[in-house]
Write a structure and sequence with these properties.
Two copies of one chain form a homodimer.
Chain A (H helix, E strand, L loop, with lengths): L1 H5 L17 E2 L2 H9 L3 E8 L2 E12 L2 E7 L3 H6 L1 E17 L7 E15 L3 H13 L14 H6 E16 L16 E9 L3 E2 L22 H18 L1
Antiparallel strand pairs in A: 1-7, 2-3, 2-5, 3-4, 4-7, 5-6, 5-8, 6-7
Chain lengths: 242, 242
């Protein structure tokens, strides 16, 4: 585990944070923590010179990123051959309202991960991925579900991208350092929070059935990223245990 | 204005929603409402065959999308020539926890907009864009700020992309339609909300100065998208009036 704490992604012109380079981080710990705190990513890929930016749920295992979709989707058909891709996760934390437009900004934490995306074809790897697609978010839930049919497995394409390079970019300054702080102009940091809402139980769930323990981290009002990070750690521990 | 309500973006193989086509919308009203409810977008572009996915604040004027950055940034240098780009906005609304992995999903509202991104070079268009970069989010605020210097204007690159094609994709089903609804398995819709936090007044603001009225829509606990949509409408009305 000490290796993991000190490991970093290689830095190249592709992932080097050039602008505001002091905001850049390349260590696995920082990059992975930001990825594991998110469910939604945007994936960029190219078809005939045209870039596409597609939102998707995703998850991580080690230095691999996974996402899925219908076997019929355009993105997945394109990526099946090992196409270059870029998966980005962004946490918007606040608007920084300084005393000039130029000094105004936003606090955010983002990761850009580069690699080649490929269709998962090995049946064992695919079965494991379909399991983690549920359990990474809701650890223990997959075992409670109606198992997948062969036809469903066939209809679900799973994509994997080994991270070749990645960078995290973090701004957390608010309006600190505004050169115009002496001017009598209102300035504030305006935070933004993504939180969990009230669970909407399906009316078809049998009366008397209680919300299962695997959903406990997803409590109303909690920051989504806390629940996701906690769920990820639990799923990782369960996978390591066996 | 009746034209606007009925206008739609052209549909081509690039923007047609192929998978789950019943979720696709192409009318300006739907597309623009989802754009105006967001501050954060992800922009995809290509350099030497490599796709990049970059998060950025953005805003809309009519059928044009604007974003900005340092004149030194890699993305902006690349887009200056009118490079093909794709700007995507995603609102994640809920996890849909059905009784199988296959039927589980997410509720979301997203827009993919395609066009060619270009650097804004006309001084008048750039001045207007730098004004809207503030006022689109906080209508009336720009007039209260320390004006931009010539050097700041030079250091800020503004990018514009005329939307050639766009599509919105909306899923709002929760766990309705789960074919396994008769099974005694827990199922729920788990909502996610992005809300405004408590304003963090800069300690340098003069004592006695009150939070200005242009920030009133950004009240603690309010959905961010409501405040953004309201601010957009106010900024649009002010621009039309003046």
């Amino acid at each position: 585990m000490s290796d993991i704490a000190s490991a970093t992604y290689p830095v190249s012109p592709r992932n080097r944070v050039k602008r505001k380079h002091e905001r850049g981080h390349y260590d696995h710990e920082t990059v992975h923590a930001l990825l594991d705190a998110a469910a939604l990513a945007h994936v960029s890929y190219v078809i005939d010179g045209q870039p596409y930016c597609t939102p998707t749920l995703f998850w991580r295992e080690g230095t691999r990123l996974y996402w899925h979709g219908s076997s019929a989707s355009r993105m997945l058909r394109n990526l099946a051959d090992g196409e270059p891709a870029c998966l980005t996760v962004t946490h918007l934390d606040a608007f920084a309202l300084a005393r000039s437009g130029f000094s105004s900004s936003a606090d955010y934490r983002s990761v850009m991960a580069f690699g080649r995306a490929r269709l998962v074809t090995d049946p064992k790897e695919k079965a494991q991925a379909l399991h983690m697609m549920v359990d990474r978010f809701f650890p223990g839930r997959d075992a409670t579900l109606r198992p997948a049919t062969a036809q469903e497995v066939k209809a679900t394409a799973v994509i994997v991208m080994e991270i070749e390079e990645a960078s995290a970019k973090i701004r957390a300054a608010g309006v600190a350092g505004d050169p115009d702080a002496a001017l009598p102009i209102w300035a504030e940091r305006l935070p933004v929070h993504t939180v969990i809402g009230a669970s909407e139980r399906c009316p078809s769930v049998p009366p008397g059935m209680e919300r299962p323990a695997h959903l406990a981290p997803y409590a109303e009002g909690r920051p989504l990223e806390d629940a996701l990070r906690e769920a990820y750690a639990a799923a990782e521990a369960a996978a390591a245990a066996g």
